[in-house]
Amino acid sequence: MRKTRSTQDSRTVQFTLIFLAVLFFALFLAVPLISVFIGAFGSGLSVWADAILDPAALAAIKLTLIVAGISVPLNTLFGLVVAWTMKFEFTGKSLLLALIDLPFSVSPVISGLIYVLIFGLQGWFGAWLQDHDIKIIFALPGLVLATLFVTFPFVARELVSLVEAQGNEEELAALSLGASGFQIFWKVTLPNLKWALLYGVIQCNARAMGEFGAVSVVSGHIRGMTNTVPLHVEILYNEYNFTASFAVASILAFLGVITLIAKTFLEKRTQQERRKASA
């Protein structure tokens, strides 16, 4: 009787937790996502196309792609360098790992403000930059710097955790056989990191294209020039142009769905690689 009652209680708890999880997913993820697509396409495909093809919207999309196109490869390179560095023991290794996590503990708005205080007109280098006609804040370089800061942990963290699980036995074996450093990295280390690398790149790209707080501070909200897609959505919404704002927001929603699908696939492959590494 005790076993039967215990089994029934555990099933009740299990079903309750599943129900709460599904309810949470529906209320906070599915419903908002569906509402975005309803708001975007509710007035017809032609209205959606007009909002997307608006010059300001096209400029925002182009700028978002440029910022992501610069920041994601740089963060990918940074993540690979850090992952390779973690293969060795050196002074300051724990400090480097702590600095990688810094953007997770700092508000994006604060990170954007830091760049304004450094490169703004009244900042540390503001006067020098103005004298040399160099624009960072309220221009593309500022957007890239802010995006780089908030996104650089994604690739690095994903690779570092896998590198720590794998160890460096394979690299040492390749070194003993006479392989050069480049050969070891290209033929031994990188193939073992490929799925985790893709996983980190996808997450980094999604965050780069959807970042709002940091770029909002450094952009200046110049329509058609320094507004990324999230900032353009905010402007349209504040102007009560709800249909257009949902239409442009649907681009980010599409990106989120694609990212979720790719994330699920790559997460399984990454877990398999980690199990192989720990076996």
What descriptive keywords fit this protein?
279 residues; globular; single chain; mainly alpha
Descriptive account of the structure:
The structure is a single chain. This protein is globular. About 80% of the residues lie in helices and about 0% in strands. With about 280 residues, it is mainly alpha-helical. The mean pLDDT is about 85. It is built from 13 helices and no strands.
Radius of gyration: 23 Å
Mean pLDDT across every amino acid position = 84
Terminal CA distance reads 41 Å
Portion of residues within helices: over 70%
Q: Report the principal-axis shape.
A: globular
- Major pleated sheet: none
Low-confidence stretches: none
Q: Find the structural class using helix and strand composition.
A: mainly alpha
What is the string of SSEs from the N terminus onward?
HHHHHHHHHHHHH
Number of strands: 0
Number of helices: 13
Strand percentage lies at under 5%
